[in-house]
């Protein structure tokens, strides 16, 4: 069942025990949408558990400060439903297979075009700017149906964070008039815009820039249209910075005159490389990512390649150059 918001609202209203979660390698939309749902269910008096087997990046710690986030090994409930937010693939839900497979119901709320509607209940819109926009739409409709206005300052701040990160602070093509309307309403609800901008975009640690300098030395431009940067686990270790804290470097590959596709290769461990893909105008990078069992959006996608950084780069470049 896909995009029946009313059925999801009735399920949320009539059930009591929930796990909220998202995808591996958390980002702003991941954390923002999950927290928006978490706080909303708390306000409804539900038993809700935030389970995520990963850590938030440093620039998003301000959102999760004080929130109890469980690892799968710490979760002991037996009767629950899962709400998977911003997760385009069932296999990327960031908790144990046992917890996922034991859920009574899975609700999927997501905006990835590659999503195959794996939930028992689904709200999927690939045209939405962010999953936070879908959560916002759900809460607006909840108010219309149930007469309860759940959006407060905490929820507004969480949803605004996901909105601005997934739209590149309203610069990406995913930004629509509805995005600005949502932003206005969240600001009226008390979203802490200045704090969000400072924490997310203006608070990179010194070590980030040390790593950036080293990473830029790997910058490779092919045919003037494709650019790549590689980050090894040794580079992360030498600069004392976390794997989850350097995704912002991806934009440096795309933001070069004449470049259509940017590629960031980030080594997590030996023979495991996360690949982030970005495009400007005409290349659908989600199709490239899907060829490596990944996914995402037309202009922003990713995948994991289980090989060396050098071999992963060769494979991805071959696929991108065929598309170009």
TrEMBL record:
GO terms for molecular function: nucleic acid binding. InterPro entries: DDH_dom, DHH_sf, DHHA1_dom, Oligoribo/pAp-PDE_c-di-AMP_PDE. Residues 241-321 form the DHHA1 domain. Residues 18-162 form the DDH domain. It comes from the Bacteria. PANTHER family: BIFUNCTIONAL OLIGORIBONUCLEASE AND PAP PHOSPHATASE NRNA. This is Phosphoesterase RecJ domain-containing protein. It comes from Romboutsia lituseburensis DSM 797.
């Amino acid at each position: 069942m896909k995009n029946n918001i009313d059925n999801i609202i009735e399920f949320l209203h009539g059930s009591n025990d929930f796990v909220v979660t998202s995808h591996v390698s958390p980002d702003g939309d991941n954390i923002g949408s999950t927290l928006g749902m978490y706080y909303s269910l708390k306000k409804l008096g539900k038993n809700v558990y935030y389970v995520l087997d990963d850590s938030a990046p440093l620039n998003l710690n301000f959102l999760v400060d004080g929130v109890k986030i469980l690892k799968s090994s710490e979760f002991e409930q037996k009767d629950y439903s899962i709400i998977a937010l911003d997760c385009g693939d069932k296999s990327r839900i960031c908790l144990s297979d046992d917890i996922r497979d034991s859920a009574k119901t899975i609700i999927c709320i997501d905006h990835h075009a590659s999503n195959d509607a794996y939930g028992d209940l689904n709200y999927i819109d690939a045209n939405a700017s962010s999953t936070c926009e879908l959560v916002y739409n759900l809460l607006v409709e909840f108010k219309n149906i149930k007469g309860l206005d759940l959006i407060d300052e905490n929820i507004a701040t969480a949803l605004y964070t996901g909105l601005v990160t997934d739209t590149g602070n309203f610069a990406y093509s995913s930004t629509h008039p509805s995005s600005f309307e949502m932003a206005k309403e969240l600001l009226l609800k008390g979203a802490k815009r200045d704090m969000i901008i400072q924490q997310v975009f203006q608070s990179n640690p010194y070590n980030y820039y040390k790593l950036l300098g080293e990473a830029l030395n790997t910058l490779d431009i092919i045919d003037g249209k494709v650019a790549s940067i590689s980050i090894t686990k040794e580079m992360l270790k030498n600069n004392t910075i976390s794997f989850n804290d350097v995704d912002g470097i991806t934009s440096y590959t795309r933001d070069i005159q004449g470049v259509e596709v940017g590629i960031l290769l980030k080594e997590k461990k030996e023979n495991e490389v996360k690949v982030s893909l970005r495009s400007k105008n005409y290349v659908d990078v989600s199709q490239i990512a899907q060829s490596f069992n990944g996914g995402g959006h037309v202009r922003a996608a990713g995948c994991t390649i289980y090989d060396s950084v050098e071999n992963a780069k060769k494979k991805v470049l071959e696929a991108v150059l065929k598309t170009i």
